[in-house]
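Deliverable D5.2: sample structural annotation.
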Amino acid sequence: MDKKKLDFSKIRTYPIRERENKVRKEDFATPLDKGCSFIDFFDSLPNVLDANNLRSVVTAVLNARKYNKPVIVALGGHVIKCGLNPILINLMSRGIITHLAMNGSAAIHDFEIAMIGQTSEDVSVSIQDGTFGMAEETGKLMNESLRQGVKQGLGAGQSFGERIIKGDFQYNDLSVLSKAIEMGISSTVHIAIGTDIIHQHPSADGAVTGEATYKDFQMFTSAVSELGGGGVYINIGSAVIMPEVFLKALSIARNLGYPVKNFVTANFDMSLPYRSRENVVKRPHGEEGQGFSIIGKHEIMIPLFAQALLEKYEL
């Protein structure tokens, strides 16, 4: 069929200076000379996209601590495997992190690092003969920690941390769980039965594991209830467990009447999975607060973020 010919000569245009633009020359990166300071480097980043988001999260954390609001940091296992414990411990020691939460995988890697200074087996090899996750000491000691901790009324995070300290492992100083106890920082571990290697061991006890992690869920919810009015929640590398736990804790806190509004959330990960995007960055805020997504490798982005905090932290 023949189509009606359009008269392109009648297309309307307008002056470019009347257009709203997303990028301005004032937002460009600044080239630096050799030997510049870190803060010069950080301030030289372009004022666009994730660089701008990173600045916003740094500012939010600094403001939270300035006004004595909580900064909750939640971890997935890969964060520990990337060698970031010393960075996290440093932030804890400066009073920047006020509550440390993690999934079961992160706790296992932290425990093994404290015990032998190593972690992370080659799953593609060990799964072939059924030896994946079967390291005796990890399962035995961690499940024993939960049993003893529950008898004392402790949650999973404190149970693991206390066992690391009392076990006097060679690399205790590298454990975020043990350091949290020494520094008086709340630490919680959020376990889903069947997701962690210690659940494969004959020493595992589902009732004990459930009780320990439920105590931690209650403690975590209490921390979340204090986020309103300027607190910060940061999720690093947990694609499912911690985003889900956070959303439920937030709902409970609001259900109990806590005004958890006007706070900042941030998700640091190598991509932006569905639950992290919805449960951390978008859903929590409604008309108030802000959520940010920072995409990049943990081993690069977290040290960069931490150093920016330390350089600008004045408390």
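Annotation notes: Residues 48-312 form a domain with the Deoxyhypusine Synthase fold (CATH 3.40.910.10). The radius of gyration is 23 Å.
The annotation will be released with the project's public dataset once the embargo ends.
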